[in-house]
Amino acid sequence: MDIILVTTVIASLFLVIGAAEPLAARLRVPYSVILALLGILIAAGATFFLRTDLTDALNPVAEAILGLPIRSNVFLYVFLPTLLFQATLGMNLRRMLDDWVPILVLAVVAVVVATLSIGYALAWVSALPLAACLLIGAIVSTTDPSAVVSIFRSISAPRRLARIIEGESLLNDAAAIALFGLFMGFVMLGVPDPELGAALARFPMLIAGGAATGWFAARLAVWVMAMFNRHELAQTSISVALPYLAYIVAEQIIGASGVIAVVAAGLTLNLTAPGRLPPQSWANLRELWDVLAHWAGALIFILAALLIPRLLEEVRWGDFALIGVVVLAAIAARAVILFGLMPLLTLMRLSPMVERPYRAAILWGGLRGAVTLALALAVTESVRVPGDIQRLVGILATGFTLFTLLVQGTTLRWIIGRLGLDRLSPIDEALSRQVVAVALQTVREDVARTTENYELNRDTVRSEAKRFGERLDLAVKQAEDSADILDRDRITLGLIALAGHERDTILARVRERTISARMADVVVSEADRLIEGARTQGRNGYQRAARRSVVYGPAFRAAVLLHGRLGLSGPLARLTADRFELLLSQRLILRDLGAFIDGRIRRIHGRRVADLLRDLLTRRIDGVETALEALRLQYPGYAEELERRFIRRTALRMEEREYITMREDGLIGAEVHTALMQDVAARRTAAEDRPRLDVALQRAAFVQQFPVFAELDDGALKRLGRSLRTRYVNAGEVMLHKDSAARQVFFIASGAVELETAGQVWRLGRGDMFGQMAILTNRARRANVRAIAPTTLLVLDEDRFRQLLGRSKALRNAVAASAVARGIEPEAILPAPKDRD
Question: With bands split at pLDDT 50, 70 and 90, how would you rate the model's confidence at 315?
Fold first, then answer.
């Protein structure tokens, strides 16, 4: 085929892609539907010109279009990895993890249910073997929720709902393609009725092998990319190679799911690369992948649509009945998940509440597209699949895809309108009025400064200022006097605005690099939780999200367990350092929010709401300060190192700004500016490195804090440090129970504990010890000991404690004082002093 003609055809397809998006917006139909329709029209037109006698002038072009090397491998090995990989890079994974249950239900359970429902329905009404029916079910189970997601975004649907649908779109294809490979093997081997249990038992192995392959490939890629820290193009090139190599290795060498490998590689890169790569390099890398995915997604739709006339050439009247069976079974299976299982998960508090109208929109928005056609094409290309199965697979998959695109896709927006999802709720209406009022106030201030700078005619300025002021007064009055908004809703609106401003401030600090790239996603995710909490549950939701940002989560508790039981300090050190930096970042942001409350929210919602928000903000600041102080007590000096790092990053940002200003003013030339900026970049890279926190080495610092060990020499301190074991206890955890055997003495390095016995309560803090009296009196413990704050303990066994007691006068005095407080004679329990080592 003439290469010039093929190049012309491909370039023309890009012109079609460019025209499709504005056309879809004008016709108010999903973008994918327009692409599919254009592809069908192009293929039908090419076929018409080849078969007509009207003219032969367009035959070369028609032959080039129909002769494009469109094979299933092109879709699966070229386009699909690009789409999946970009989707993982564009996701906020920390927010996805909050909703992992509904995402997995829609993406995996729904695929399995749809495959089985469609497969058994076809087996019941047709003469096809069960393996072929299940293969068809797996092929048509791949949904393309991009249409419903884009519409949900345009109608301001809850962010959480859109995020769940995006998560489904990522994992849905992976699960369906894994099932496709499973049943395709049975069909090619001629197994008519596969053992379903054995077939599904292989499914987890395909997923596990693909996940391990993708994780290892991404970790290796990040390590190599970090070595090329100053070579952005090299980093980008490695990222382009990653999904394709992971896919090929998993499919051809490991024998696992290549799709799962690509998804795992993208998720791993998304989680680890921001902390290892320069922020600008990471941002540019994601922008490149956005462009690649846009092209790949559009091309895969158009090229797949070109195949539709070919796949439908042998359609028969009886096939339409089978297509109807597939449509009904697919919709019924998805309805069971959305209206049966999802409400059950909500009752079990494993999934957010998804209102019935939204579930109906998701049901009707389950469009099929290019992946379904690509899998069908793979079946029709296989010489090991019988001809009658090839024909039916191609026709049923294509017919069902056309139904979803032409019927569901074109009516989806109408359905959403009938469900009332395109209308703002009263609180959203009020929020929009608030936004207008706040925006107009900002505009008035900016316009006033601009008119002063340009020295415009005073009468003209005064006239326009009066008109603008009238509009502003009207907007503020509408925001204040909304009759359908209750007082509690005004508080909710204020909290949403405050959380939104917090998110904007965080993004500005990230751009300025005051907040490190490692912490950017974390603090933005916390701000998103505040917004969603305020929007869904008002003040209670906001406070719950605020408390969550400072508490010790399950991952931290697991790291404490690993450190305490197995001596693995790496996860605890990393999470503790992350917590330090997160709290410092939150403190930086929260201190800037008071001006927003006083300057904006007070104008619109009044003094009472502003004072309430100020009180909530003060509580948040106190909580962050308390948590930060606990860490400072636990790890002396580390917070200071982080603060020094923050100052260095801030100074570098200011220095960079000065060089840019000097270049714009013509004080320095391009060569000098480039050299200075390269020097700043090198120092910024060094400043991004976070100081290392080694929790295993903190014992020496802890020991030196205790007055009871002050008289020990360096040798004795080192021996004591080796004997002490560090134990981390979460707030509320009971570490010792009444009547338990006494085998250890505990020294409080940081935090606080509460001792309760016989109705009396004692509280001990930093520098205190407990457990010694039970050992010296040879009795079982008489108190329950519970941590009332995150606490670090130094634990000394009984034998070493008795030896130390005989050598340390300060320790003997402390024990004697503790005995006197309990009404015990010190001489009755203290051993005779020994000579020091």
Answer: confident
